[in-house]
From TrEMBL:
The keyword Transferase does not apply. It is a multi-pass membrane protein. It comes from the Bacteria. This is Inositolphosphotransferase Aur1/Ipt1 domain-containing protein. The chain crosses the membrane at residues 6-26, 47-67, 104-126, 133-155, 194-210, 217-241, 247-267. Its main location: membrane. GO terms for cellular component: membrane. Keywords: Membrane, Transmembrane, Transmembrane helix. It is found in: Membrane. Pfam families: PAP2_3. Residues 97-254 form the Inositolphosphotransferase Aur1/Ipt1 domain.
Amino acid sequence: MTLFDSMRTVSIYSAITVTLLIWYGAASNPFRIGGLFLKEMVLNRKYMLHFVALMLILFCNKLELQIESTMTVTYDYAAFFHSIEGNFVKNLQDAFHNKYLTTFLGFMYVIVFQALLIASIAIYTFQSKDRRMFYAVCYAVMIIYLVAIPFYLFLPVNEVWAYDPTVQFLMVTDHVFPNFESQYRALSGIDNCFPSLHTAISVTLSILAVRSGNKRWAWFCCTSAAIIIFSIFYLGIHWLIDMCGGVLLGVLASTIAMRLSSAQFSLRRSQRTLKRSNINYVREDAK
């Protein structure tokens, strides 16, 4: 049996997984939270603008692929990466190779990774009245892409399996996603390795989940991040250096995002306090 036979299957699995994760992370009806999201998009201009900005930055990744296709890039730093870390990915893949593990990690890499981001947006919209964590997610993902895209354009690094013939690309096995290259590859360039977006975003979502105070969601995000990071090696996709760059970028992005979000919240609170003080002053003066 094939796990993913088309992008339609990916979409169905994603929708189901997002619904379950929202229910688990928010401990509430996911459809109610979906309604709240739509309400915020209509009534909260600031919320809507942040979400649109997030979608635009994700679109930039596709734009980067289009720009890259017009560039005459003939160099590839995969050989340099291999000279540093050797056969790390091959040895890990050989040590753990198992049909059922391949299926599970393929699901984590394709479905759970993107579901974590969508569910985080929904959960933080529901659990935080000031939307501070929602804004932090938006800022963090935007920072990650803004930093990563120049590397993808000017520091091309082919995926491990594409450079090293001894490493298998396990994603395209018959029981996982045999049409991955023709149907999913358009979302991610084969030489867009450093830094690893799967690592950076997973680490970011884990840190933000811990900072949110939602213990059950923090536990799930941290566990999922560890599994997803393992999957990028096991499936034969990323180099160890890619992961290190992704971890560093994830920590940096989440730290800056929390500061931006908190500073914005503090500024609004100061403005409200100043406004109340002015009102009280006017009342006292009137007396």
